[in-house]
Specification:
The complex is a heterodimer of chains A (294) and B (346).
Chain A (H helix, E strand, L loop, with lengths): L9 H7 L7 H18 L1 H22 L15 H31 L1 H6 L5 H30 L7 H26 L5 H21 L10 H12 L1 H13 L15 H24 L8
Chain B lengths: L1 H18 L2 H9 L6 E10 L2 E11 L4 E5 L6 H8 L7 E6 L2 E2 L4 H7 E4 L11 H11 L4 H14 L15 H13 L5 E5 L7 H18 L2 E6 L2 H5 L3 E6 L2 E6 L1 H6 L4 E7 L2 H12 L4 E3 L2 E6 L2 H12 L3 E7 L3 H9 L1 E4 L2 E6 L1
Parallel strand pairs in B: 3-8, 3-9, 6-7, 7-8
Antiparallel strand pairs in B: 1-2, 1-4, 4-5, 9-10, 11-13, 11-14, 12-13, 15-16
Classes of the chains: A mainly alpha (294), B alpha/beta (346).
Chain lengths: 294, 346
């Protein structure tokens, strides 16, 4: 009866005829591709994410153009449309990134996610696919806006190198914002909940990023001090500032607000923002809870 | 009580497999193959609610195995545990010899999962859904295209490949789900309520396909169902009730445990009649779903006896061979309607 203690060798039998060999990067690529296909099949998303920022840019540009004066610059120097341009770019990235991560809630509700969750892939590859997909969609929208502005207006001028740098920087911001969206959306049960977060957290985050108005340089009073530090603590401030600096790499007399952070700092903060947001998405998705279900 | 002692006996056989029950153990050893599914002392709870209680059973390779039970009986929880959708809290599950808790990724590569809720992307075409699934399982290139074509042809979807899945009927969608589940040629296919929402024709197609892959590809099939007719087609059935295993055997063997015929009497006051029958004949007559019911060998003789004794109170009396519904009632005290299990106590 010695055989009783000997376990049958099922593992060897199992691995010898393994049904498939999972490839995390292929899985990420396919999920990313799916995001893009879905995006283009839902036209209203294309219009919504691009239309609103363009309207904002034109309307605010027209409405505030006459009253806006950049602090520290003596008269004129920069139009509001020009000032508002990097902020609008970031707004497009924010809206598109956020809306594309909302789709994780839909994926969960519609059932698609369950088949991804039981697939033999690490969770980070699912997150990579989702974040990359969302970032690329955001980039497409952002580049569309950039092209429209460069071709049809006289507000912004970029040479090829500046353009390349702007695109790379935009992509980093897009990854950060998509990661942020994913982190928020993963545990959400409904898209309504996400809209609430959008209006009390994400939109204010954009408002105090220097996109809309510059950081108060010589704050007086509690409110201005609070704003000053909120803006300096906001990682998105460095994204907007980085894009603004990249617009003026050719000139020494760049029309920049006084509190604009230096380029290396913008780059470091934005890269760290993206890395941290991706890591937090991967970490939150890795924890298997009942939250994985409906 | 006959039922519960029987089910305890069944449990103990499987419990003993690991320790000393020789025939089952040596079978597994000689073929160098572990069972397709080996569940031991599995418990699961959601907050305070116990969904599975100390479940132990094993499913052999090549079986079609059905978990039958009402909603809330623990089937869905078991499905989620087997399909690795939720982590195991207590106990152990081995699939094809791999531990689900510690070798989750390896298990996932070996199993195909068909969910009850659709897992298709509605905005994508049939072919795109299949292709994405292939990529998730590490398939690509010519190999994936070959399998995709093969699956689509086998499931009669070849001419629908370019249609978006949102435009397909429920039956066709379920076929795409099956194609997704079988694409990577798993050795175990787990299906949650596969017939739900299917018309009889689509249901028959589904079963044709399941029996075909079992025969040709030697795939073990594990499914959950609340439909008796579906459970009837399985090789073995495990009846789950309130998170516990109350019966496990072949459909024939389960029916045989009822031992005799099932007599159902429609009457105006079933409680009174049941009591009267019990008193007069010294046998167990119970009220289930507003009818008096008793199980006896030689049912036809009982009919004569009952009509003679209580003729004026009987509206109708029927004699039937025991069905799985009777087995379920016998084990749990719950009733069936329209061949589905209801949750309410009778």
């Amino acid at each position: 009866m010695t055989t009783q203690t000997v376990n049958p060798p099922p593992e060897s039998a199992a691995s010898a005829t393994a049904a498939c060999h999972p490839r995390p990067l292929l899985a990420a690529a396919t999920l990313c591709h799916r995001e893009l296909v879905r995006f283009f099949r839902q036209r209203s998303r294309v219009v919504g994410a691009l239309g609103q920022p363009i309207l904002f840019w034109l309307l605010f540009g027209a409405g505030l153009g006459s009253s806006f004066r950049l602090p520290g610059s003596e008269g004129g120097g920069v139009s509001y449309r020009e000032y508002f341009f990097p902020g609008t770019l970031v707004m497009i990235l924010l809206f598109t990134a956020i809306f594309s991560t909302i789709s994780i809630i839909e994926d969960r509700r519609e059932g698609f996610l369950q088949s991804v969750l039981v697939a033999p892939i690490p969770r980070w590859s699912m997150v990579l696919g989702k974040v990359l997909g969302g970032s690329l969609i955001a980039m497409i929208q952002g580049l569309l806006f950039l092209t429209l502005v460069l071709v049809f207006t006289d507000d912004v001028h970029l040479d090829v190198w500046q353009l390349a740098a702007v695109v790379a920087f935009m992509f980093t911001i897009a990854v950060a914002l998509t990661g942020l969206g994913f982190t928020i959306a993963w545990k959400m049960e409904s898209t309504q909940g996400f809209h609430a977060i959008m209006s009390v957290f994400l939109l204010p985050m954009w408002l105090v990023s220097g996109a809309f108005f510059p950081v108060p340089s010589q704050p007086s009073g509690a409110v201005e001090w609070g704003l000053h530090w909120a803006m300096r603590a906001n990682p998105l401030t460095y994204g907007v500032a980085g894009l603004r600096r990249l617009m003026y790499t050719e000139t020494s007399a760049a029309p920049l607000p006084p509190q604009t952070p230096e380029m290396p700092i913008c780059l470091i903060v934005t890269l760290a923002f993206a890395a941290i947001m991706f890591a937090s998405s991967a970490a939150i998705a890795r924890a298997r809870t009942k939250g994985d279900l409906l | 009580m006959q039922g519960s002692s029987w089910s305890l006996r069944m449990k103990s056989i499987t419990v003993k497999t690991d320790n000393w029950t020789y025939p089952l153990f040596s079978f597994a050893h000689l073929t160098a193959m572990s069972p397709a599914v080996d569940v031991s002392n599995l418990s699961h709870h959601y907050g305070d609610r116990q969904a599975l209680k100390d479940l132990t059973l094993s499913i052999q390779r090549g079986e079609i195995f059905a978990f039958l039970g009402p909603n809330g009986g623990g089937k869905t929880t078991l499905f989620r545990l087997l399909s690795t959708l939720i982590p195991i809290q207590r106990g152990q599950v081995k699939i094809l010899g791999l531990d689900v808790g510690s070798q989750t990724a390896a298990v996932r590569a070996e199993i195909g999962v068909v969910f009850q809720a659709p897992s298709l992307d509605k905005k994508l075409t049939v072919a795109e859904n299949i292709r994405h699934q292939g990529h998730l399982y590490g398939l690509s290139g010519a190999d994936l295209r070959r399998r995709e074509t093969e699956m689509l042809e086998r499931l009669g979807l070849a001419d629908r490949a370019r249609e978006r899945t949102e435009s397909l009927s429920g039956g066709l969608r379920r076929r795409v789900e099956l194609a997704k589940g079988m694409l990577h040629q798993p050795r175990l296919l787990i299906l949650d309520e596969p017939s739900t929402g299917l018309d009889p024709g689509a249901r028959a197609d589904l079963w044709d396909y399941l029996t075909q892959i079992r025969r040709q590809d030697k795939v073990t099939i594990v499914l959950t169902t609340h439909l008796l007719e579906e459970a009837e087609r399985a090789d073995r059935i495990a009846i789950l009730h309130e998170g516990s295993l109350v019966a496990l055997d072949t459909p024939d063997a389960l029916r045989a445990t009822i031992g005799g015929d099932a007599i159902t009497i429609q009457t105006d006051d079933p409680e009174v009649l049941a009591a009267a029958i019990g008193q007069r004949f010294d046998c167990a007559a119970v009220v289930i779903d507003g009818a008096v019911r008793l199980e006896q060998p030689d049912g036809h003789q009982w009919i004569a006896r009952l009509v003679e004794a209580f003729g004026e109170q009987i509206n109708s009396i029927t004699l039937g061979k025991p069905t799985l519904a009777d087995v379920f009632i016998d084990r749990t005290g719950h009733r069936f309607r329209n061949s589905e299990i209801l949750n309410t106590k009778s």
